[in-house]
Amino acid sequence: MAYPQINYNGSNLLLFTFPPVNKAGVYSREVQRTDLISGDGVKQSTWIRTDKFLTLDLAFVPQDDLADWEAFMDWAEQGNPFAYFPDRDQPDNATFTLEDTSWDPALTFKGMVKFSMKLRLQVPDDSGS
Amino acid sequence: MIAAPSNFIAANEALARQPVFLITIAGLTQQFTNRYTGVPHQEAWLVDATGSGMVEDFSTTISELDGGAELGEFAFNVLDKGGFITSLFPTFVFKGKTVSFYMGFAGLATADYCLLFTGVVDHVDNVGNNTAYRFSCVDKKQILNQVVFQTGDSGLPTDNNNPRTVQGHPLDILLTILETELGLPSLGVDEAKIIAYRDGIFSGTEFIFTLTSPPTAKDFIENELMKPLAGYLWTNNKGQLSVNFMYPLTLTAVYDFLDGNITESDASTPVPQAQQVDLVNIINYRYDYDQDQNKFMTEVVQQNAASIAKYGQYGQQIIESNGMRSSLQAFFLSTIASRMIFQRYDGNALKFDPLAAFWKAVTVEPGDIVTVTNRLVPDRATGLVGITAKKFLVLDRIWSFTAGLVSLLVVDASYLTLFGFVKIAPNGKGDYTAVSAGDKAAYMYLCNDSDQYSNGAAANVLG
């Protein structure tokens, strides 16, 4: 299995030197829903939407890669979409936007930094106007 | 009660729902929703840009004793997707455009959505760091700020030397103001309800006014037409100006509030907090206004003697009517209205403010009669804890769309079970057993001391 890559802003590629760690294998969810409970315990739920997220725990990012990461962050931090391929040799991918509003790489040991990123799964834009 | 499509009512029974909000603006092709519907030109651009919800809470407040009602601001927020809303401003005027707000559920056809609000755009503000627009809408009652009866009987502008005489049934006068003086289309007026009251409980009523200055429509309607008859003017979901009176058109409850559909309010408890209505046991009615002496020539003090004997005089109301005349049943009208007010505001009667309920109650309107059952509510009138199918009348209402919560102000209406809707039989009607079923239900007939007709049927109660 190959490591991930991100496609952004046309033909730009961000290749992961090391894969993210602590992968759960499914998206995390944040649900906007209001529950009301009646006097005898009946529950009414009003569901507005469910937001899905992918958190990339990048424990090993070579400092030599940071220039590429900064170029990607210049694009993503504006809210622009990008495609994340968990396996760059496979076609499966999903489109995300960056949920974080800060990015803070930290040195772990010489030549290596770590950071995490929270990605929001993009909902298709079906508007016509 | 709001007349909702049957498919909406069926879908609204579900306890897990995915609401769809649909907003249309007259003259604009695009319609705004909160989720993708697949319908052309319906854009999922409603957004919570202010923290108050995509569609903000909407309230209706009834001032029953003052003859009027106020609709709160209806506000919604739309994403300025790709600068689209901004691009409209040079050529499209939002202010004054009719806004219609519908609600449905995921999977429901648009035709089955329920119309909840009709009004006009008042102003449009930038919100969310200029990424969205907040549309603030009001009901069409703004038109009532105009003056009416501006032309005197002589054809000259109404003034002291050129008075305007307005004479007729007060509800015909209301229709004249709304449709002739203000130019509202008939579709903008709840004619059916107004006519039902005109030809029903208020049949034969007549007011006479001599106006020496043109009044504002709102003041005239509320003070001169509604208040003396214990009624109020309000705006329904269709944007129609309608009326409700303390004397109802029907006693049928439209909704039953039970343990299964009453929920938490701010008190965080699903038990409705029992409160008591205000006490009003004395009303000064003034009528027979004399233009030359500039004063009312008749003042009748209506009293709830039993209440005054128990509590003393409380909550005095003063109702002045320039149009009511002694020779035109003024005393009878003031007695009926006072009786309704005394029974509504007897001090002991129950009130819930709020009665918080599931969204199934969204079709309940001000003026509706509902029932409430709860084993933990104390009833001072009976001295018991617990009420079962007790009748209440709906006044104020708040819709919280995102939470799916309906909050109502309801007051005890159990005294209405003593009221009937039959009339005195006209000349020529036959004996009770000989007339049609329709006549049996519509008119009074002679009964025995046990309140029974000659065939043993229970006698009707006079309306």
Layout of strands and helices, then pairs:
The complex is a heterodimer of chains A (129) and B (463).
Chain A: E1 5-8, E2 12-15, E3 28-37, E4 43-62, H1 66-76, E5 82-85, E6 94-98, E7 106-109, E8 112-121
Antiparallel strand pairs in A: 1-2, 1-5, 3-4, 4-8, 5-6, 6-8, 7-8
Chain B: H1 6-11, E1 16-17, E2 19-25, E3 31-33, E4 42-43, E5 58-63, E6 68-71, E7 74-79, H2 84-88, E8 98-105, E9 114-127, E10 132-138, E11 164-168, H3 170-181, H4 191-199, E12 207-211, H5 217-226, E13 231-235, E14 241-245, E15 255-257, E16 275-276, E17 282-290, E18 295-303, H6 305-311, E19 317-320, H7 330-344, E20 350-358, E21 369-379, E22 384-400, E23 405-412, E24 423-424, H8 437-442, E25 443-444
Parallel strand pairs in B: 3-4, 15-21, 17-19, 24-25
Antiparallel strand pairs in B: 2-3, 2-8, 5-6, 5-22, 7-10, 8-9, 9-10, 11-12, 13-14, 16-20, 17-18, 20-23, 21-22, 22-23
Helix pairs in contact in B: 3-4
- Assembly state (oligomeric): heterodimer
Radius of gyration of chain A: 18 Å
Strand content of chain A: over 45%
Measured on Cα atoms, how large is the radius of gyration of chain B?
25 Å
The largest interface is: A-B, 19 and 34 residues
Shape of chain B: globular
What structural category do the secondary elements of chain B indicate?
alpha+beta
Shape of chain A: elongated
Give me the count of strands of chain B. 25
Individual helix count of chain B: 8
Count helical runs of chain A.
Answer: 1
Strand content of chain B: 25-35%
Low-confidence stretches of chain A: none
Q: Give the distance, in angstroms, between the N- and C-terminal Cα atoms of chain A.
A: 42 Å
Helix content of chain B: 10-25%
Estimate percent helicity of chain A: under 10%
